[in-house]
Amino acid sequence: MSFYDEYRSKLRSPEEAVKIVRDGDWVDYISNVGFPSLLDAALAKRRDELHGVRVQGNLMFGPMQVVECDPSREHFHYNSWHLSAYERKLCDRGLCSFSPMLFRNLVWYYQNFLHVNVAMMCVTPMDRHGYFNLSCATGMGLGILRSADVVILEVNERLPRICGGFDEVVHISEVDFVVEGEHPPLPQFPLQTPTAEDIAIAQLLIPHIRSGATLQLGIGAMPNVVGAVLAESDVKDLGMHTELCGDAYYRLYKAGKLTNRRKSFQRDKGATGLVFGTQELYDWVADNPGVIAEPLSFLNDPAVIAKNDNMISVNNCIAVDLYGQIYAETAGMRQISGTGGQLDYLTGTVGSKGGKAFICMTSSFVDRDGVRHSRILPEPTGGIVTDPRSQAFWIVTEFGAVNLAGCATWERAQRLVSVAHPDFREELIRAAEKQRIWK
User: Fold this and answer.
1) Predicted confidence band at 293 (pLDDT cuts at 50, 70, 90)?
2) Which of the two residues, 193 and 255, has the higher pLDDT score?
3) Is residue 318 a contact partner of residue 361, using CB atoms and an 8 Å limit?
4) Is 357 helix (H, G, I), strand (E, B) or coil?
5) Domain 196-434: which CATH number of 3.40.1180.10, 3.40.1080.20, 3.90.320.10, 3.40.50.920
6) d(CA 68, CA 48)
7) Quick one: pLDDT at residue 382?
8) Does residue 105 surpass a pLDDT of 90?
9) Least confident segment among 117-121, 338-342, 381-385
10) Strands 169-171 and 131-133
11) Could you count the other beta carbons within 10 Å of the beta carbon of residue 3?
């Protein structure tokens, strides 16, 4: 039987394919633009005949019909490993549960502790050798598919085929069912307009980034602003080693700054695990030998990250307390995103020769009632700590950049107060004195 004959023998309508799902099953949607929208719609139509089906995913951009059709969560119970803005709103409505993890460990969880009944995701059309490309969800796709009892692939003609280091494809022989159908354009995530504070923070980082550095830019507005400012700078021959490739990297490439020529590890290749952004980004990564997709279990391994000399890691956070504990995934007890790879990049970057790890935030924010709050907190809040104080290094606000490495508690407090919003510095000093961490 040829690959095409095997393909045809496994071809089903979405409605036929999802008949395999039973009460109590674990159904996995994998990640981001790999979301299988046709299968999701077909599964939602079976709502009244199914109960207790667990649906797992992460960074889903919605709408997810199995969630929206079942506000009681009696039939489908959705859980996310890392929240997108859409999933955050689902959490606020009680329609999504959060599953803590490090992205590096995710496939290991599946291999050792979790049982997936049905895995389904969008892939590119099959090539003449019988392979489907996992595209923008390569970072975890194959590991989850291979842990499942049943694999259903939804062919999305709009997904870019991304060259791989390894584990970027799945063969037709490993697949149970294939689904076809028309898809709308991929979700678009243009760069946000930076604030004056964002630009000030980015400009504080530029002196620390030298030509030939390799960049990891995290999820969010601030890392993207750093990329935009770098594109206008004199820095050149930058490299990419990141869990997420967004439009900041494409902007650096267009400006002639991103060449990967001076990388000490995987030279001439920009490495990533996940991709989402604008259509220009999707077009750039498609069949581009200069961009490779690899598993996050490899990319986010601190030992692998450290192989890149002059590694620069730039990530967001929500708040930092005076002890240096970093809150990057919750606001109080409200889940905002997830740990992802931030802790791994903090660890791996400081193991790099010449590496520096930066956590960025505006010094304050104004709530819906017009009240200003400090992002540098006087004491631990009871929220979820993403990065322990022992892994806190450079903290950057619009008022400065301070390095906490090797600092005593009073030195940490002093340095953090120095980059706090002026309106809160006296209050923070009093709190530090009360806790005996002020000199």
Assistant:
1) very high
2) 255
3) yes
4) strand
5) 3.40.1080.20
6) 14
7) 73
8) yes
9) 381-385
10) antiparallel
11) 16
Which candidate, 116, 56, 105, 61, places its Cα nearest to that of 80? 56
What are the domain boundaries of the chain?
3-179, 196-434
CA-closest candidate to residue 80, choices 55, 57, 113: 57
Question: CB–CB of 5/98 below 8 Å?
Answer: no
Mean pLDDT of 318-332: 95
Once rounded to an integer, what is the mean pLDDT over residues 285-311?
98
Mean pLDDT of all residues in 243-256: 95
Q: Which residues contact 129 (CB under 8 A, 6 or more apart)?
A: 3
Q: Give the number of other Cβ atoms within 10 Å of residue 239's Cβ.
A: 28
Helices (H), 45-195: 65-68, 85-92, 106-112, 138-145
Length of the chain in residues, anyone?
439
CB 315 within 8 A of CB 223: yes
- Which contacts of 226-232 are long-range, i.e. CB under 8 A and separated by 24 or more positions? 226/201, 226/202, 226/314, 226/360, 227/251, 227/252, 228/191, 228/194, 228/202, 229/199, 229/202, 229/203, 229/205, 230/202, 230/206, 230/257, 231/255, 231/257
409-418 vs 425-434: helix crossing angle, rounded to 10: 170
CA distance 114 to 149: 12
Express each pLDDT in 201-235 by its tens digit.
999 999 999 999 999 998 777 777 888 888 889 99
Q: What are the residue numbers of the active site?
A: 243
Alpha carbon distance 154, 368 (integer Å):
42
Task: Write out the two tokens for 84.
Answer: 């997108």
Mean residue pLDDT across the chain: 96
CA terminus-to-terminus distance, the chain: 77
| CATH fold of 3-179 | Glutaconate Coenzyme A-transferase (3.40.1080)
Q: Two tokens at 37?
A: 């929208």
Decide: 130 and 11 in contact? Cβ < 8 Å. Answer: no
Question: Both tokens of residue 208?
Answer: 């620390």
Asked whether the domain spanning 196-434 has the same topology as the one spanning 3-179, the reply is yes
Residues 6+ apart with CB under 8 A from 372: 364, 365, 366, 421, 423
**Percentage of the chain surpassing pLDDT 90?**
92
pTM: 0.95
| pLDDT tens readout for residues 44-60 | 999 999 999 999 999 99
Distance of CA 388 to CAs 46, 323, 363, Å?
Answer: 44, 9, 20
Nearest Cα to Cα of residue 166 among 42, 74, 304: 304
The dihedral region occupied by 371, where left means phi > 0, alpha psi between -120 and 50, and beta the remainder, is beta
Q: Are strands 394-397 and 400-403 parallel, antiparallel or unpaired?
A: antiparallel
